[in-house]
Amino acid sequence: MAASIARLFSRVSWHGPCIILKNTLPCITLRYTFHRSATTQSGLLFSLNKRGILKDAFPENAAQDQLPQLLQSGCQTVYCGFDPTADSLHVGNLLAIVGLLHFRSAGHNVIALIGGATAQIGDPSGKTSEREHLPSDVVEDNTRAIRESLQRIFTNHELNFHNDSKKLGTVTLLNNLAWYKDWNVVAFLSEVGRRFRMGTLLSRHSVQSRLKSAEGMSLTEFSYQLFQAYDFYHLNQNHSCKIQLGGTDQLGNLMSGHEFIHKVTGQDVYGLTIPLVTSSAGDKLGKTAGNAVWLNRDKTSPFDLYQFFLRQPDSSVEWYLKLFTFLTLAEVERVMEQQRQEPGKRPAHKRLAAEITKLVHGKEGLESAKRCTNALYHSNLQALEQMSDAELQELFREAPFHELLLEPGTTVLDACRRAEAIPQGAKGYRMVSEGAVWINHSKTDSPEQVLIPGQHLLANGLSLLKVGKKNVHIIKWLNL
Fold first, then answer.
1. Shortest CA distance to 102 belongs to which of 58, 39, 48, 158?
2. In what residue span(s) does the Caspase family p20 domain sit (predicted)?
């Protein structure tokens, strides 16, 4: 049985990880009281548990003594898997990555395993229906994009959050397609399948919940836990990996890996799970629910990521600071004290948004998010002038982008008509004269006004044209 990390410590002295967030009040039930020895309190597991990053350990008995001792005995290898079922990871995967980063900061080696093979099978854990089959070329493209995202985040952590006085563990990015591409089904079932008992596989919660559903469960989905178990075995044999990190919905897969390795090799290996954060209604969120906040810039800009965390409810901020940032717990308390003293300034929200944006997109991404925030919400002309074409298009993702030649004597009315932002004829003229048009955050109610450099024409060759409250057009003047 798996043991709650909290119970584990109180007695002694995550392929498909997913913590899901939504811009609503999350339902988080982890609250622990600690009574531990000084030695245990100094351990990595205790630290991660106190931050809320760890929930359960498996197997229960061994984890009470052997796992803490193993981590203290020297450098270990920890892995977590990510199936490339989309061309980007999302905020739902972030806590798993943060968990790996904590292990790496403590000197342990980490493996981020991309499931180029298992993505074509589909993990049933936490799913109410079978995942749509993905063609191999789509999985290959997704794998490439996710690898780049993971590399970026690991690099950002090393550059921006690592204490140089501590030695970092290594990072290895692998694709499980590498060891499945030469297997045939007969050989796999003969060598791997015979090690599993049907009763045990059928007893898994992920299997039981699907078997009781109207759609049922396909044989393909049912076999997923065999592949994840073999992944753990392969990493154990080839990379000396003894610890798997996964979401709580992965506990059944994790158990299968432990049982397979123990039967084949006699070794003890371990599993650690991270909590799932759900909506207030208890629904697991993410790309399956259609509300993902992505980690790749071409799908969710640094500005949008920054705003997502900036808009979290007050009741979530302290918890998220502990989960997703590398601030010490003492620093988190100082930030929260500032929040209590000056709630209107929202220092905790800003720190949370800044720390996560810097981790995902680096310092340049954070600066971009701040420029976009100042340009959009604070009508800061200097920030708008400093924005690149790409940032403006990210900020106004649905806005038409026009490249126009600036002709001598071009007026406000000319610009609006050439951008097709207003109707032709008298109606469009009236819209300008009645104050419905804004250029670079300034109301412009003189249709015949010639465009003025520095006011209507920014030094970066751009004009931000807004008609009414929502219709935004971006104009790039080519011969400014």
1. 48
2. 336-420
CATH superfamily of 39-274: HUPs (3.40.50.620)
Rounded Cα gap, residues 247 and 249, in angstroms: 5
DSSP 448: T
Residue of 110, 104, 63 lying closest to 82 (CA atoms): 110
Q: Burial of 211 by CB count in 10 Å (0-12 exposed, 13-18 middle, 19+ buried)?
A: exposed
Residue count (the chain): 480
| Helix, strand, or coil (residue 122) | coil
Say what the pTM is: 0.82
- Using one digit for the tens of pLDDT, what is the confidence trace for 94-147? 999 999 999 999 999 999 999 999 998 887 676 666 677 888 999 999 999 999
CATH 1.10.240.10 segments of the chain: 301-394
- CATH class for domain 301-394? mainly alpha
Q: 313 preceded by cis ω (within 30°)?
A: no
Share in percent of the chain as helix, strand, coil (round to 5): 50, 15, 35
Structure tokens at 310: 């900036």
Distance CA 320, CA 309 (A): 9
Strands (E), 83-231: 109-114, 171-175
Strands (E) located in 28-75:
56-58
Sheet of 3-4: strand order equals 3-4, 56-58, 270-274, 241-247, 77-82, 109-114, 171-175
Q: Which two tokens stand for residue 450?
A: 């010639």
Compute, in degrees rounded to 10, the torsion defined by CA atoms 435, 437, 441, 446: -60
Tell me the sheet residues that pair with 462: 476
> Hey, what are 390's tokens?
């790409």
Render pLDDT for 255-297 as a digit per residue (tens, 0 to 9). Answer: 888 888 989 999 989 999 998 865 334 545 455 545 688 999 9
Q: Are 287 and 85 in contact (CB under 8 A)?
A: yes
Mutual angle of helices 251-265 and 224-239, in 10-degree steps = 50
Q: What is the CATH number of domain 398-477?
A: 3.10.290.10
DSSP 291: -
